[in-house]
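Appendix B. Worked example

We walk through a single record from start to finish. Start with the input: the chain for Ribose 5-phosphate isomerase, Aurantiacibacter marinus, length 150.
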Amino acid sequence: MRIAIASDHAATDLKAELRDWLIEEGHEVADLGTNPGESVDYPDYGYKLAEVVAEGTAERGIALCGSGIGISIAVNRNPDVRCALVSEPLSAALAREHNDANVIAMGARLTGGEMARACVTAFLETEFADSRDTGGRHRRRVDKLSKQGS
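Next comes the structure step. The output line below is what the pipeline stores for this chain.
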């Protein structure tokens, strides 16, 4: 799978750990930055990640910052992207199954490497429920997420 990953300065260590692990697992990973030692603004990296996922260059994305909150808000500014802030595997799986999330966000100050890998695994292995022909109830709701005020 093609996966893009981006972080601010607070999450460069977790980003590197996840990037290297994903490559070992056989995924193609685009590291969108930032690099250790640089103080940056998380919205810049959230917007960059959202653009790559929205245009289809990456199938999924992983957004990281200190808490995961700020970067998830930035990613969700793009109407073609659905980013869910997750902290454990069940929320990551449900984000895919019910909300067709194509990006997850996590906080490096709140989520350790082992838990982050478990979240990513659940996110990558879970299908959107409506791809299994369940009557379309989730698709109808997800479609409304891109239509402001509808």
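Two observations about the output. Strands lie at 2-7, 28-31, 60-65, 83-85, 103-107. The helical segments are 12-24, 42-54, 69-75, 89-99, 113-125, 137-145.
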